[in-house]
Design brief:
Pfam families: ABC_tran (PF00005)
Strand order of the largest sheet: 6-7-8-3-9-10
Family: Belongs to the ABC transporter superfamily.
CATH topology of the largest domain: Rossmann fold
Structural class: alpha/beta
Order of helices and strands: EEEHEEHEHHHEHEHEEHEEEHEH
CATH class of the largest domain: Alpha Beta
GO molecular function, one term: ATP hydrolysis activity
Shape: elongated
Number of strands: 14
Strand content: 25-35%
Protein name: ABC-2 type transport system ATP-binding protein
InterPro entries: AAA+_ATPase (IPR003593), ABC_transporter-like_ATP-bd (IPR003439), ABC_transporter-like_CS (IPR017871), ABC_transporter_ATP-binding (IPR050763), P-loop_NTPase (IPR027417)
CATH superfamily of the largest domain: P-loop containing nucleotide triphosphate hydrolases
CATH architecture of the largest domain: 3-Layer(aba) Sandwich
Bound molecules: adenosine-5'-triphosphate
Largest sheet: 6 strands, mixed
């Protein structure tokens, strides 16, 4: 079978970064990003996320390796590469008295793009800012200000949008609003790369997740596969009668009895061909262990992530 491979929209090959003074913030990072995907770069403080984005956007100098954006080298062909990128910072630094519409139009001009009211209108509408186009930035709510940041970054029609910690310092409802905004961006076909400390955020938004720690990209995986591959599942049985010990006949199973003896938890691997659930049920019945309720739980990315970061220490 042959499959047609579309070239990656972003290609990072053997990239290292050593800051002046000798600190190595990135160690030989390789990563290809497909057009249209939403990729989360997940890592703790100081992992190297901002450094990597700065290199891609040409804001810091590469020590080693190459980066291309839609085939344009970010060093040799900086302007063409940069024009393909929209960067969403965390804070709005524009004039608070400027209107939404002018702010977004002006951003388009910064990239040498001709005025195009239709594009500005489309961007503002896609972010539900059209009604607010004549409002001054200072009159907007926090959520709207964040959406203006995204609109500014989209004004020159980039192929890739970088969101640097899109929900840093915002409350829960605003965080959910941002997740929805990114979900809508997916429909426009723009490739989104976001950085986050929050596993929940990566889990909610991304198609693929890269885990970065200590300047190394330690894992890149489809979200679903990551959950599947590394995820353990737990089956909890709430017993009709409490047990004092686990019956010896069940010793071959990875079982844990709760302190009060009221529930049994069985941990199993979702990848295994046989999970053992069938024989566990049979043996429970044979040994007179009856239960009144049953629940299963998959490890969250949080648990997976903590495990991974600890492994690299
Ligand atoms: N200009 C610089 N000179 C020297 N070291 C730097 C410089 N900028 C960043 N670093 C160091 O490089 C490492 C990675 O920093 P970076 O900002 O890329 O991490 P991060 O993953 O974005 O963290 P955070 O989530 O806290 O923003 C840190 O140890 C940081 O102190």
């Amino acid at each position: 079978m042959s499959s047609v491979q579309t070239p990656p929209i972003l290609s990072i090959q053997g990239v290292s970064k050593t800051y002046e003074g000798g600190f190595q913030a990135l160690h030989t990072v390789d990563l290809d990003i497909k057009k249209g995907e939403i990729f989360a770069l997940l890592g703790p403080n100081g992992a190297g996320k901002t450094t990597l984005i700065s290199l891609i956007c040409g804001l810091a100098r590469l020590s080693e390796g190459t980066i291309t954006v839609d085939g344009h080298d970010v060093v040799k062909d900086y302007r063409a590469a940069r024009a393909k990128i929209g960067l969403v910072p965390q804070e709005l630094t524009t004039d608070a008295f400027e209107t939404v519409h002018n702010t977004v139009s002006f951003s388009r001009g910064l990239f040498g793009k001709p005025k195009d009211p239709a594009v500005v209108e489309r961007v503002l509408k896609s972010l539900t800012l059209w009604e607010k186009r004549d409002s001054q930035l200072r009159q907007l709510s926090g959520g709207m200000k964040r959406r203006v940041l995204i609109a500014k970054a989209l004004a020159h029609e980039p192929d890739i949008l970088f969101l640097d910690e899109p929900t840093a310092g915002v409350d829960v409802s605003l965080r959910r609003e941002m997740w929805a905004v990114v979900g809508d961006l997916r429909k426009t076909g723009v490739t989104v790369i976001l950085t986050t400390h929050y596993i929940e955020e990566a889990e909610m938004m991304a198609d693929r997740i890269g885990v970065i720690a200590g300047g190394k990209l330690i894992l890149v995986e489809d979200k679903a596969e990551l959950m599947q591959k590394l995820g353990h599942k737990e089956l909890t049985l709430v017993l009709q009668e409490p047990l004092t010990t686990i019956p010896p006949a069940l010793s071959e199973f990875d079982l844990a009895l709760s302190e009060d003896g009221q529930s049994l938890t069985y941990s199993y691997d979702t990848r295994a061909e046989r999970t053992g659930i069938g024989s566990l049920m049979r043996l429970l019945a044979e040994n007179g262990v009856r239960f009144k309720d049953i629940a299963t739980k998959q490890s969250t990315l949080e648990e997976i992530f903590v495990g991974l970061v600890e492994e690299t220490r």
